[in-house]
């Protein structure tokens, strides 16, 4: 999302899970980010017609689901390149007999390269 303090970006046409008191889900939502902060969340129609800061960047997010403010601190980026490997195994065997032994063989450079490739896919 936007990094400069004076930059505004309006992310449009996404599904937003608000996690507010009503647990609303906006099916055609928009999020306005000013600098590094979320400054507005609402229906796409409402926010696109509102007074936006000059030079606001419009970024379509069709087909995406967003949970504003959620920071996911858990990921298996290093495992992502192993998707589809020995899928026919039960979960326990897949993890203990296939995935973890492969991960144990990674060095720091292998992990870094995996993360770069997986993040590049997104």
TrEMBL record:
Keywords: Hydrolase. InterPro entries: Metal-dep_hydrolase_composite (IPR011059), Metal_Hydrolase (IPR032466), MTA/SAH_deaminase (IPR050287). GO terms for molecular function: hydrolase activity, acting on carbon-nitrogen (but not peptide) bonds. It comes from the Eukaryota. This is Amidohydrolase-related domain-containing protein. It comes from Amylocarpus encephaloides.
């Amino acid at each position: 999302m936007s990094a400069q303090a004076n930059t505004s970006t309006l992310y449009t046409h996404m599904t937003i899970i608000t996690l507010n008191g009503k647990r609303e889900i906006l099916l055609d939502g928009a999020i306005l980010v000013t600098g590094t902060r979320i400054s507005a969340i609402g229906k796409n129609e409402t926010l696109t017609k509102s007074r936006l800061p000059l030079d606001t960047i419009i970024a379509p997010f069709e087909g995406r689901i967003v949970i504003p403010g959620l920071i996911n601190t858990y990921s298996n980026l290093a495992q992502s390149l192993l998707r589809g490997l020995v899928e026919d195994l039960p979960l326990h065997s897949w993890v203990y007999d296939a995935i973890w032994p492969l991960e144990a063989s990674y060095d720091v450079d292998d992990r870094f390269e995996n993360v770069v490739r997986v993040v590049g896919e997104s």
